[in-house]
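Entry for zinc ion complex. Fields follow.
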Amino acid sequence: MTGYIYDPIFTLHGSDEHIENRFRVERIHEVAQHFPLVRYPIKKASKEELSWIHDPNYVEWVEKAYEEGYRFILNEDTLLTPRSFEVASYAAGSTMPIIDAFANGQITNAFLNIRPPGHHAERKMGQGFCIFNNIALMARYAQHRGFAKVLIVDFDVHHGNGTQDIFYTDDTVCYFSTHEKNNYPYFTGSVEEIGEGRGKGYNINRPYGDYCTDEELLRLYEDLPGWFDFDIVLVSAGYDLMKDEAISTAQITFDGLRALIRRLLDFAGDKPIAFVLEGGYNLDSLAQSAEVTLQELTGV
Ligand SMILES: [Zn+2]
């Protein structure tokens, strides 16, 4: 069975003029109607839970920022609107019911149609459309529920600097990212960034050049860490790597995406795997990408 998370609350942050807007999750939710999914209720992360992955001072700041007059985090990439703290707390927290469902054996895979996205949010600061790091909280909660070793795979076209930052010295969470080299956030994501201390070797970056093809992308996934004895796989599913996206030069086709999804499902084997929405801004391409993903997850 395939678990699914969506709620209209995820439309209540940001601006319709911003590329990271409510229409993204609304379009995906229309697609989701055509699949046999087990929908779970959303959950709001507490400030204490958010502090598992973020500096408590940052969490406190976000809570009060709008009423104190702030309208963005760092720059206008990452808007703050009246309900942003609440919506971002729900996006991060709603990863937890899926982990509970995995732990209870109710589902074997899942798709989380949530926003704002999370993988650029570092321990001390959100950025790049991201307020709280949803997949990082999901990883920590998974460990809390007995999935001791977590593999995070990030195929968003941008490097997940936030996820890397949060787990950089950790050997219980392995982070594997493919991303376009000459793209945001520009100063992270090189192959030399392999983790530090106990985390050395558990951070794996595989950047690619401009105009990446299906073949080039899939070749990088030969480097998935077969040596890491994971208990669960969490995927930062950013669909901004597709060829019709204006935000990158990557040329990934729907056949290429399907092959990638199959590769990840094969790699997970009998372990739970969840796809958590990150980027993807061309609404037609995003809807079709979600359809491909759900076809592979449900077998329909
Ligand atoms: Zn992205």
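NOTE: Residues 283-298 form the longest helix (16 residues).
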